[in-house]
Amino acid sequence: MINFPVLRTRRLTVQLRELSIGESIALAAMPVHLEQANCTAFLRKAVGSVKGIEDPAQWTVQERMLVVCHYLASVHEDGPDFSLGDGHYSDYLDGATDIALPVAALGIGAVGGDEWQIRHMTGAMAESIERSMGEVEGVSGRLHWLLGSMAAQLVLVSEVPVEPTSGEGAFDEFLAARMKVIAGYPESDFSDLMARYAEGRDKLHHLLRAEFAPDGLVALPKGGGALPPARFPVRSCLSRMALEMVG
């Protein structure tokens, strides 16, 4: 049995446990392209106990990456600072920059007469973006992830925001509708909103620098290094035996 050291962040104290072979096989059988859904399923199985926010779907995407990496650091053959291509985990982890408390939406200013705020992206939001691929005509790949993230994270000061806890269907509908609204902005307004969104994301940065790829979320090297973006797929946490047993 593998023993995992306790992981502590400002919001979470997590004790991981080793997956059973049955759990590993069930995770290995999940659709590969649903990376965020896989991540939530993995965390719900691999977390033995947690103090703070219990449901991994409500953790930020950076917190989720961190916990997956903590599991990898204990099971990977080359140790805690496991290799990632030409780099290592430590090239991506910004452990000195944890999430700011209290967690709240930040004002980013006015665009097109509307006052906007930005909130953290949670795993549930990322799952909704993943599920909504193809819902907005002409939008796919990295643009889908960018628009989806803007739609999920940007909130009008004058509105009561829809939360993923309202239900997956309700949030998916809200997300698709908001994406269509943003995609219909005049180019100058959209450019302004996107710039303010990028600035807001920088202010919310913690633990790992999440970025958008055509097929999901990746982590950039800290300090703007020359290394390529890294991915921490749940399948990397599964044994070769489990993966082979599901073909």
Describe it.
The protein is 39% helix and 17% strand. The protein is α+β, with helices and mostly antiparallel strands. The strands form 4 sheets. The chain has a 3-stranded antiparallel beta sheet. Strands 6-7-8 form a 3-stranded antiparallel beta sheet. A hairpin with a 2-residue loop joins strand 9 and strand 10 (216-220). The mean pLDDT is 94.
Give a nutshell description of this structure:
The chain has 247 residues and is an alpha+beta fold. It has helices at 21-28, 35-46, 61-75, 123-131, 141-153, 168-183, 187-203, 240-245, and strands at 7-8, 12-16, 47-52, 83-84, 87-88, 106-111, 114-118, 154-156, 209-213, 216-220. It has a three-stranded antiparallel β-sheet with strand order 1-2-3.
**Strand line-up in the sheet with most strands:** 1-2-3
Main beta sheet, described?
Answer: 3 strands, antiparallel
Tally the beta strands. 10
Helical/strand content category: alpha+beta
Specify the number of helices.
8
How far apart, in Å, are the first and last alpha carbons?
A: 25 Å
Structural shape: globular
The pLDDT mean sits at: 94
Query: Helix coverage percent of residues?
Result: 25-40%
Give the C-alpha Rg.
Answer: 18 Å
**Assembly category:** single chain
Order of secondary-structure elements: EEHHEHEEEEHHEHHEEH
Q: Stretches where pLDDT falls below 50 for ≥5 residues? A: none
Percent in strands: 15-25%
